[in-house]
Write a structure and sequence with these properties.
Chain lengths: 370, 107
Amino acid sequence: MQKVVTINLNGNAYQIDDAGYAALVAYLEGADVSLKDNPDRAEIVADLEQAIADKCQGFLGPHKTVVTAAEVTQIIREMGPVEGSASADASSSGASARQTSSDPAGSSAPRRLYLIHEGAMLAGVCNGLAAYVHVDVTIVRIVFLFLALVSRGGFGLVYLVLAFVIPPADTPEQRAAAHGQPFNARELIDRAKKNYEGFAGRKDWRRRWRREQRAWRRSWHASRWQPEWAWGPSAAPPGAYGTRILSGAMVPILSIVSVLFFCFWAWAVYSLVTSGQVLGQSLPNDVPFWVGILVLVCVYHAVAWPLHFARRRAAYYSLGGHYVGFIPAWDGALSLTFGILAVWMAYHYIPEVREVIKTLPDVWKSFGFE
Amino acid sequence: MSVTEKFSAIRKGLLEFLILRIIASDKVYVADMLKRLGTTEFATQEGTLYPLLSKMRREGLVDYEWQESDAGPPRKYYELTAKGKSQLAELNDYWKYINTTISQLGR
C-alpha cells in the first residue's frame, strides 16, 4: 500500500505515489537549477511539466488513476537530463543536471527533525530521528530502549519531552523535509512568485500563468487536507451510518487496548530485566538475554501494528472519510489519560513499579539536572 | 572510442540545423519533432529540446503559436521566422560546402 500525492503539472492534477513524487520533484528541481541562468527558465520548466503530464496521461486509464514510482522513473528517463543555458558549458551543466536528478536525497537538502507518524510505535520520535540521521528506525529504537533500561526508565522522560517539543510532519512537504528531500511545494510557490514579479512576457502567456498558479494552489491545499491515514486513492468511500457509529465506538476501545498492551509489554520487559522471567517463564540457559528483549520487541510490533492500523481506520471511517483536526488530538489526550492512569495504578498496586518511580529523582541527579 | 562516440559532439552541434529543417518542412510541435528524430542517429529528448527551442526563439529563428488539439491541452506549434528561413538557407549551403570539402580531401 502506498500513499498518494496529488500534484499539479502545468495546470493538470495528477495522482502519483509518494516515491514517484520525490523522484519527480528532484528531477524538476534539477531542471530548475541547471536552467538557473536561462531567461526563459519558467517557460521551459512549464513546457517540461506539460510533457511529463502528457506522458503521465499515457499511463492512466479508466481503471487506473495513479501513476506509480516505476512509471515516473521511466518518464524521467524518457525526458532525459535538462541541458543548461545556451552558454559554452552546456555539456557540463547537463552533466550536473543528470547528477542532481539521480540523487533525490542530495546532501545539500535541508533536513528537518519531525515526528513521523507512519509506522510509529508511540509518537514517532524514533521514526523522525531515524529519518533525520539516515539510520534504520529499529536501530534508533534499540538505542532508546537500551538507554531507557540503563537509566532505569529515566530516559523515557527524554522521549516524552521530545514527543512534545518536536513538531509532527503532517503534510507531504514536511515529510519530504523530514527525509531530507530537497524540495517542498511552499518553496516552489515562493520562487515562482519571485519569477513572476520579474517576468515580462507576452500577455496570453501571463494570463495562462496566473491560471496555473491558482490551480496549483488549489491542488496544494487539496493535498494538504488529505487525511494522513487515507492510504490508497485519496477519496475513500464514506461508510454507512451504522459503520460510522460502530467505528466511532471502536476508537476509544482500541485506544485503551493499545495502552493496556503497551503497559503489559513494558512490565514484561521490566520483569525480564530484573528477574529474568516473563509470566513465570525464564529464558532457557543457552539463549542470551538480548534475544529475549528482541523477541519481546517483535511480539510488541506484531500485536501493536494491527491495533494501531485498526484504530486509525476506525477513526477515519467514524468521520465518514472526512478529516477533522480534533480527532487525533482527542485520541492523543485519551491515550495520555489512560497512560497516566495506568502508571498511577501500577504505582499503587505493583511494588516494583513504585521502586522504579522512587529511584527517578536519583536518575535526574545523575543526569545533572540539579 | 566507438564511431558514434567520436561524432557525438558533431551530432549535438547539428541538432539546431536539423530542427530548422524539420520546422521548415511542416508546422510541428515538440512531440512530432522527437518522433521524427527518434528513428534517426539524432534521437534526442525533451530535456535537450525544450532549452534548445527556447534559445532559438530568443535568437528570433523560430516562433510558436498555441493551437487547440483534439486530445488534451493546447500545444505549441513551431514555425520559422523570416530570419530563421534565411539562416536555414545559409546553413544548407554551408553544409553542402563542407560535404564537398570532405569528399575532395583525401579519399
